[in-house]
Please model this.
Amino acid sequence: MTTWIHTILLPFLALIFFGCGILNSDDNDNNGIDQYFRSNLNGEEWTVFPRATVDKELTDLAIWGEKLYPDYWRETLSIRLRFIGPGKYDMVWRRADDYDGISIGAFYSEADYDVGIARYYARTNDTTNFMEIISYDEESRIIEGTFHLTLVIEEEWEEKVKRWEELGINYPKRRRPDTLFFINGRFRVLVEERWWN
Model:
């Protein structure tokens, strides 16, 4: 009986589980495509799960990386731009009201599960805030690039948290400092078409 289990049943179950991807733990493998979104963040290596979407007209491009920690603390770096092809893009945050109906630029957020804790934005248009798209392959839909960002805490959000604390509301504390330096950032990600536009 034991021989039957070892020679037939276990290999069969392994084939089913691995063949169907049930036990595949590589979150960055999407259809066999090597994807990444990484940077040096304030002196430490920072690697997150990458995603990218574009509208049907191939102009509104969003690239983001997100990391969820075991205690449900979540951090997300989002980059959104008017895509015109490979090249350098300014990352200063512009809200939809100020720029053609679409918010563009770089944005970072911290959350405790689903409760927003902090928001950071790129404030200055200089060599500390840019993203460069190196290549975009229309057939494979793979986009590659680099980024360098200096993001500053949103003051309005900090004021809101202070008011809650004054009211005795125990609000989660942010874990990152007032300024975030993303240096030598690189990404390679599959761009998905947004279904909602």
